């Protein structure tokens, strides 16, 4: 590309980012406290476009309360956009996102987001003690709650084997701890927060495949009874979901069911799975 071509592209991106930020400010705060009763999430006839691109058109989705739903589909189909709409980074131009039957726009943003968590597979760490890093999940959490969360996240013994235990100060990069261990700090933080709705976006994952598979295999156990959305950019893990939504262009659900259902159907999901794994 020529220098002018590059410049034009850069300016286009900057303009698009500015418009996006303007739109983000345009998300209006609601007035009601968010008190989910089950956390059943629905997209009702949702259409959504970024300034230069229509992503979802008349999209209808259902995420059952207390279950793991995986969202799968080709790259660029709108998987991450779906989670941005649930978190209200944006509002759809047409249609509704509902939780337990209520339009999520009525809720205070802070209240809504405090009951949801995006599981960060490479969590942000702070130059503070382990105790403080985990307490970041919920203001006011006690030391005992942190310890319980770390036990559940299977990192307690590892912390206790260190000289300063929970008082060891972490570096922002978490140096001296493995990717899997850092991921477990994030998990402990999430247990402390105890949200009703959990979003796992594999796109943010910088961990190795083995750790990732381990994480996804444990989702059922860790988040039993919580509405969990697994945005699956790769297919290594969706077998463990209670339901899989396989999306085609513009967010249409073209196949839905368990991994076994969709493999037996020998449709688009099956082909994608074959493509990644060589055999079904
Ligand atoms: N902020 C944005 N502004 C403009 N277009 C965007 C923006 N974010 C995403 N897009 C475009 O919208 C489409 C859907 O993006 P999204 O990230 O939701 O897809 P995805 O299914 O999660 O993709 P992948 O599996 O590759 O991560 C893509 O074509 C993407 O280029």
Automatic annotation (TrEMBL):
<dbReference type="InterPro" id="IPR036640">
    <property type="entry name" value="ABC1_TM_sf"/>
</dbReference>
<keyword id="KW-1133">Transmembrane helix</keyword>
<dbReference type="InterPro" id="IPR027417">
    <property type="entry name" value="P-loop_NTPase"/>
</dbReference>
<keyword id="KW-0067">ATP-binding</keyword>
<keyword id="KW-0547">Nucleotide-binding</keyword>
<protein>
    <recommendedName>
        <fullName>ABC transporter domain-containing protein</fullName>
    </recommendedName>
</protein>
<dbReference type="InterPro" id="IPR003593">
    <property type="entry name" value="AAA+_ATPase"/>
</dbReference>
<dbReference type="Pfam" id="PF00005">
    <property type="entry name" value="ABC_tran"/>
</dbReference>
<keyword id="KW-0472">Membrane</keyword>
<keyword id="KW-0812">Transmembrane</keyword>
<comment type="similarity">
    <text>Belongs to the ABC transporter superfamily. ABCB family. Heavy Metal importer (TC 3.A.1.210) subfamily.</text>
</comment>
<feature type="domain" description="ABC transporter">
    <location>
        <begin position="41"/>
        <end position="275"/>
    </location>
</feature>
<dbReference type="InterPro" id="IPR039421">
    <property type="entry name" value="Type_1_exporter"/>
</dbReference>
<dbReference type="InterPro" id="IPR003439">
    <property type="entry name" value="ABC_transporter-like_ATP-bd"/>
</dbReference>
